[in-house]
Amino acid sequence: MGYINIDGKLQALQDATIPADNRAFRYGYGLFETMLVLDGVIQLADYHCDRLWSGAAALYLQVPKLLTREALVQEVLRTVAKNKLEKCCRVRLQLYPGSGGFFDNVSQQAHYLIECFSLEPHVPELNEIGLTIGIAEGLQKSPDALANYKTTNALLYAIAAQQAKAHKWNDALLCNTHGHIIESTIANIFWIKDDMMYTPPLTEGCVAGVMRRYIMQKIAVAESILTTETLQHADAMFLTNAIRRIKWVRKFDTTIYNHGAVLNIVQQIF
Fold it and tell me: Model-level pTM greater than 0.90?
């Protein structure tokens, strides 16, 4: 039996409910963090909290005073322990407002929901079989004030993922309204050219990934606009997120990428 945590109350998964007029359900109004737990420790917990608190302010969510960063971390670990998944698991933490409409005179106090999912230990490791990716068609992400946060309004990513399935890709890349490639459905993008590593700047509209931040604090990375032509001439490419960490991309379009360069990055960071 699995358990989830809603506002500090642990409940059996099959018994948990939310009101039909909840604004997260109605409008995709909310934020989420996907966190990796290894041996009872939340990886990059401070980075996740930084983004979550910043996003809450951007969405006009009022975090309860008692819900400090430390308290929220403890609630995550309590939920993990209840599910007996301390060794290795994925946690989804969602922050969202209560019920109502756009202009109702209702509280903006944030609620939270914590879910845990079993994770195979090999998932965070570097892949030996490279990914094949392509560009999603007919979809563009605006580089607006909310673009850097992981909001629950994820329809753009969901449709891009369906396109990836249809094309038998492992993932799909998304472009912004300027036609520049910015990220994949679940990850940030890095590429290597002539021994220099690059990634799109946050001003292009990609999510401010915690693994992206971690890598950029460990290794020199230049921020640069990314186009299809740039990727076609790159020496290596990889995708990053908090759960999968670094994943080598083998093929984009007709371009085949180097595995050794990505392996070298992994050895330097972890």
Answer: yes
